[in-house]
Specification:
155 residues, mainly alpha, 5 helices, 91% helix, 0% strand, globular
């Protein structure tokens, strides 16, 4: 029961971000945003439950980081796609944006993984839970932005 109460901030942030995206980018990109944010967040939450990681004041910010990274990567993808579509044809713009966004996601994710690995190794028990949740989310976000989002946005 306490875990369900603790997840309300995550749900509220998720809903506000999605409302903004639908207003800004329309239905097609909004659906891509939903799936790209939902997949890593849901899987990370499932891993928290399966591993028996206690939901604390440190796991909620970790989940918010997972959502923020997904939002950031997808937002960069959508903005770049919108800008490049004005300059070139749609297929060329999509190829350029997919390549650039994948590189950005890889570099940002690797930097985050290194920092979180240090927290996992040298941190206290509470920080280790934060690091584990964040690491799972960062890896899943990296995979979704590189492999899943381009397929969702193209359709």
């Amino acid at each position: 029961r306490q875990a369900a109460i603790d997840m309300w901030p995550v749900a509220i942030v998720f809903a506000l971000l999605l409302a903004y995206v639908f207003i800004r980018f329309g239905l097609k990109m909004g659906v891509a945003f939903i799936l790209d944010m939902f997949i890593p967040t849901a899987i990370t939450t499932g891993i928290i439950a399966l591993c028996g990681i206690k939901v604390t004041n440190f796991t909620i910010p970790a989940l918010l980081i997972v959502m923020a990274l997904a939002f950031m990567f997808t937002f960069i993808f959508a903005i770049c796609l919108k800008d490049y579509s004005k300059k070139t044809d749609a297929d060329e713009a999509f190829a350029i944006v997919t390549k650039q966004t994948s590189k950005i996601a890889l570099v940002v994710s690797l930097m985050a993984i290194i920092a979180l690995a240090f927290l996992l190794i040298f941190g206290s028990t509470l920080l280790k839970n934060f690091a584990i949740v964040s690491l799972v989310g960062v890896v899943l976000n990296m995979a979704t932005i590189i492999y899943i989002l381009p397929g969702l946005a193209k359709k």
